Amino acid sequence: MTVTQGRGGERDGERQPGNRGAAPILVLLPAEARMTTRDTSQMLGTRPADDLDGAALARWMRQAIDGFEGPLAYVRFAGGRRNRTYRIDTPERAYVLRRRPSDPQGPAVRPLDREFRLLQALQPTGFPAPRPLALCTDASVLGDPFYVMQLVEGRTLWDETIPGMTPAHRREHFDAWIDALAALHAIEPAPLALDAIGFTECQLDRKLRHWTARPAARATPELARIADWLLRALPDHAPPAIVHGDFRLQNLLFSQEGVDVAAVLDWDQAGLGDPRIDLAYVLARWVSGTELHPALDELAGPESGIPSADAMVARYCRASGRDAGAALDWHLAYTLFRLALLEQEEAPAHSATLAATAWTYARRAGA
Fold it and tell me: Domain of life, per the record (predicted)?
């Protein structure tokens, strides 16, 4: 049995006074879900975890995690294509378990130990990442590698318009969202020795070639035009940062009271790279929408409390100490192009809308 323990013991997994009956919202959606026209309601909530051997898990947790006492109960969080995620409850404490997917034909999955060790490395920085407790690479325990981390109680906001709040309170949540992204990108990667745990800088040109080589990139003349321009106009790299890869609102847990970000979730796509990748992904919801979900820039203003895209960028630059630069338009075109490819097969009309918006930003960048 191979076990790696996280830092700081297990106390952070205890339920806090006043929250004993509250269930955390830790449901994972596909990375492109916020930009899609497809119904995602079936991905919310939990379901019975009939694919988990509770007895074997309890034996392992008793050895691996200080203070663990059964019996345990568990449910699987619905959604999440790359990793299976479960809530584990005991009479006094609660945990989250992350496990490799069961479908070998599913989306590409990075090693779980990489995600676990990144969460370990982030603990001394003060960034709100869940505390990892123990890693198991012995497939004989549950059939797949997995790790256990603290459960963080908090609120997930599924709708980016954040209904049901005053404009001022809504604005505070948007500010907290972009401030958390700026705080992540302000962390200096070198002292964390991330190269020792498998994190090397992702070269943007290699990622771009991967996306433009997809058959969908030539499915329409509009997509082909954007693909060719992106390859010709590749910008210079910004100084590398820790990039989350999926920094949408639904991957943030806000504190039960107040607007602090209690935890940032779902780190399986994280890496080292140009931080404008994350910033453009956040801004995509501002510049492109659907009939049912208008672009947030169309709703921005003091009456709604929703900041404009320009206001989000300005706040990010102040908080991170970075200059988004003129290349941000290229990154927006690239992000919208990728989303258009993901929608091409199942929602071609929406894909065309995304491609048109991508070309708008390509033109702004000099195409």
Answer: Bacteria
Helical (H) or strand (E) element with 97:
strand 94-99
By DSSP bridging, strand 271-273 and strand 241-243 are antiparallel
Q: Tell me the CATH number at 353.
A: 3.90.1200.10
The conformational region for residue 143 under phi > 0 = left, psi -120 to 50 = alpha, else beta, is left
pTM score, whole prediction: 0.84
**Each residue's pLDDT tens digit in the chain (367 positions)?**
444 444 333 333 333 333 333 333 222 223 333 332 223 233 346 666 678 899 999 999 999 999 999 899 999 987 656 788 999 999 999 999 999 876 655 555 568 899 999 999 999 999 999 999 999 999 999 998 999 999 999 999 999 999 999 999 999 999 999 999 999 999 999 999 998 888 888 788 999 999 999 999 999 999 999 999 999 999 998 889 999 999 999 999 999 988 999 999 999 999 999 999 999 999 999 999 887 789 999 999 999 999 999 999 999 999 999 989 889 999 999 999 999 999 999 999 999 999 999 999 999 999 9
The identity of residue 1, as a single letter, is M
**Per the structure block, which two tokens stand in for 362?**
């390509």
Does residue 265 sit in the same domain as residue 350? Answer: yes
| Residue 10 located in a structural domain | no
On whether both 129 and 210 belong to a single domain, the answer is no
Q: Does 160 lie in the same domain as 146?
A: no
